[in-house]
Amino acid sequence: MVRQAIWIGITIAVFFIGIGISSAIFSATYNPNTMKFANQELFEQMMSQNPKMTAKWLDTTMGSEMREKPMMSDMSFNVNAPITMPMIDGYYDGEKVFFVHTEVSDKAMAEMMTMMINFPTLHVSDLKNMPPDEMSKIYVFTNGISGSGPYGGGPFMYQIDVFDSIPNQMGYSQFRVPHLVTWNENSTPRILISVDEIMEAESNAELTIQKTDNVVNVPMIVWKSDDMEQRASMIQRMFESMPGVDGEVTNVDVDNYLVMLKMHSKNGMDMMGQGLMNP
């Protein structure tokens, strides 16, 4: 009986240890702090080669704990390390555009956008402090026609976003205020590909537009101007949270929704604080 009691005790202990291990595995798998990405190799490449971004991403996912313990905050980007990022498609005036989103002022939105493309979008609350005249608009659909393409449409999985401006236009800014577009109950949703179409549908009481308090950093990579395709060559203020760092566009693959960039520091310093021949 004693031996049986011992075995019962061991079995119960093993059972609860198993529960604890399972719980730990579950937390490690689904906790945002240990989030895995579908393009994990690209994510790890970007983080391992750019310690400043690593620190910012950890701060995004771990919150105040990381803010109390800054990591490598004084280190510059490795300008020789390429970064491959997913591009997202949208519309401007009836034409397709391609862009990347790097930062957003709202934490929940950062997580949503990260999950949308399986690639980190940084949470930078200070974006809200930007002057209104330095921001453009982006229209995001919350219902209507289901999305398609590699990312399932916009962040709510409906049709892709619509922009109000493109580079080299007066009023263009890569920093945009999202305006949520919602089809009204008695309307017939359809794909809208320009701001004019959105405004007309609103005037016909077909949909409702709600301005948000958020700001998102969405540099445009590919667009059309005068029926000619244009591509960005250098993205200034690519990460507003990392002053003095610009992104040089080295390759664009529209078919696979990818852009390759190299980070450049305006102070001409590499990760080790050494001067660069070609900053």
Structural features, described:
This protein has 279 residues and is an alpha+beta fold. It folds into 2 domains: 29 residues; 184 residues, no CATH class. The longest helix has 29 residues. The protein is globular. The N terminus and C terminus are likely disordered.
Key terms:
globular; 2 domains; single chain; four-stranded antiparallel beta sheet; seven-stranded mixed beta sheet; alpha+beta; about 280 residues; disordered N terminus
Indicate the topology.
Layout: H1 2-30, H2 40-49, H3 51-62, H4 64-68, E1 82-86, E2 88-92, E3 95-99, E4 103-104, H5 107-117, E5 122-123, E6 136-141, E7 162-163, E8 175-183, H6 195-203, E9 207-211, E10 216-217, E11 220-225, E12 228-231, E13 234-235, E14 245-253, E15 258-265
Parallel strand pairs: 4-5, 6-8
Antiparallel strand pairs: 1-15, 2-3, 3-11, 4-10, 6-7, 8-9, 8-10, 11-12, 13-14, 14-15
Helix pairs in contact: 2-3
Mean pLDDT: 77
Percent of residues in helical segments?
A: 25-40%
Radius of gyration, in Å, reads: 23 Å
* Estimated share of beta-strand residues: 25-35%
Distance between the termini: 78 Å
Shape: globular
Oligomer: single chain
Q: How many separate domains make up the residues?
A: 2
